[in-house]
């Protein structure tokens, strides 16, 4: 009836005690010691046998909004981009679905949320919202002992993913952006934009980049942790080296001591000042990758630079022309 799950988070090991009984809500609690988890299970089993276990606890009256609040406090700070997720969760907490009692959540509540979001944002953004909701609900069930028979997010049809963006610089846009960057009071912003164009690094990778991981002599930047969880080494172009040689060194050790929120705001102001439409900061990664192929790097070399698990993500960059193939040797 009672089981213990060993859970590891970085260097910390915890033990989740779970008690299940047919026709009763599943209850659980997490402990630092396995012996304490065993003791708790025994106590709950005795209470169940004697019919004195009270299921009408405060946790059973939690709303989804309460769960999101706890998630924001305990889970979000451990994420790679806590600032952005904080904004997303706070917005989710204003949605009608957040007022629903957690134990009463049903697929129809999530469907209503999904449909309302699709009227305002793209399918891709809605998918990210649903993924965040789903994870918060899973944590509530598995980690915090909240009663819900099934995760309702997993029971609904998901919207289609947006097609990948292929936005590149139009004639003169790069010069306009860099000129507009000069208006920024942040001494690191323009350098970050140029390095993004030169290296195809993600926003989070640029913001986490540290001087101790840059070797200007070997022309490389080492990224110990990336989005996919792996480390990788990024080659630095002549232009990238020139930029890095002229960046003021910050006491924090970060190459770009800028917050994600500040960076997003600065980018919006810059492209508005430059008079450019529909260009995201992440589009610079696509621009950089396209330039790699234009420099005749082969697909495996680009794969290593961009850190993809397979070739599918790079397929859209290989716009081979018949006239180019005709003049290849062999």
CATH superfamily label of the largest domain: Intergrase catalytic core
What number of domains? 3
What percentage of residues falls in helices of 4 or more residues? Answer: 40-55%
How large is the count of helical segments? 13
How would a textbook summarize the main sheet?
Answer: 3 strands, antiparallel
Question: End-to-end span in angstroms?
Answer: 69 Å
Can you identify the CATH class of the largest domain?
A: Mainly Alpha
Low-confidence spans:
320-328
Briefly note the structural class of the backbone.
mainly alpha
Number of strands: 6
CATH topology-level name of the largest domain: hpI Integrase, Chain A
What does this structure look like?
There is one protein chain. This protein is mainly alpha-helical and 330 residues long. The chain has three domains: 2-55; 59-155, Tyrosine recombinase, N-terminal domain (DNA polymerase, domain 1, Orthogonal Bundle), CATH 1.10.150.130; 173-319, Intergrase catalytic core (hpI Integrase, Chain A), CATH 1.10.443.10. The protein is 44% helix and 9% strand. The chain contains 13 helices and six strands. It has helices spanning 34-50, 64-74, 82-92, 107-118, 123-142, 173-181, 189-199, 203-208, 238-245, 260-274, 283-294, 299-306, 322-326; strands spanning 2-9, 12-19, 27-31, 214-215, 220-223, 232-235. The strands form two sheets. It has a three-stranded antiparallel beta sheet with strand order 1-2-3, with helices on one face. A three-stranded antiparallel beta sheet has the order 4-5-6. Strand 2 and strand 3 form a beta hairpin. The longest helix is centred in the middle third of the chain and has 20 residues, at 123-142. The protein is elongated.
């Amino acid at each position: 009836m009672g089981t213990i799950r060993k859970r590891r988070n970085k260097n910390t090991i915890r033990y989740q005690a779970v008690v299940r009984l047919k026709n009763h809500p599943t209850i659980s609690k997490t402990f630092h010691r396995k012996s304490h988890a065993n003791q708790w299970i025994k106590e709950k089993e005795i209470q169940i046998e004697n019919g004195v276990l009270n299921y009408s606890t405060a946790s059973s009256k939690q709303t989804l909004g309460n769960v999101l609040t706890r998630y924001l406090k305990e889970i979000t700070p451990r994420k790679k981009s806590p600032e952005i997720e904080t904004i997303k969760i706070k917005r989710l907490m204003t949605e009608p679905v957040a007022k629903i009692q957690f134990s009463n959540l049903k697929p129809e509540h999530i469907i209503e949320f999904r449909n309302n979001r699709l009227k305002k944002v793209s399918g891709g953004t809605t998918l990210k919202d649903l993924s965040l909701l789903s994870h918060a609900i899973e944590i509530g069930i598995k980690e915090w002992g909240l009663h819900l028979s099934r995760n309702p997010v997993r029971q609904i049809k998901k919207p289609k993913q947006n097609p990948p963006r292929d936005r590149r610089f139009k004639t003169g846009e790069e010069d306009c952006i860099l000129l507009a960057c000069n208006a920024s009071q942040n001494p690191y912003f323009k350098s970050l934009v140029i390095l993004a164009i030169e290296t195809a690094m993600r926003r989070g990778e640029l913001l986490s980049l540290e001087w101790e991981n840059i070797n200007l002599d070997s022309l490389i930047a080492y990224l110990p942790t990336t989005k996919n969880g792996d480390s990788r080494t990024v080659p630095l172009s002549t232009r990238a080296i020139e930029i890095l040689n002229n960046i003021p060194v910050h006491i924090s050790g970060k190459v770009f001591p800028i917050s994600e929120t500040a960076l997003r705001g600065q980018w919006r102001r810059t492209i508005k000042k430059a008079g450019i439409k529909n260009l995201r900061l992440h589009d610079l990664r696509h621009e950089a990758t396209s330039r790699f192929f234009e420099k005749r790097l082969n697909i495996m070399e680009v794969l290593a630079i961009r850190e993809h698990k397979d070739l599918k993500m790079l397929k859209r960059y290989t716009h081979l022309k018949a006239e180019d193939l005709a003049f290849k040797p062999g």
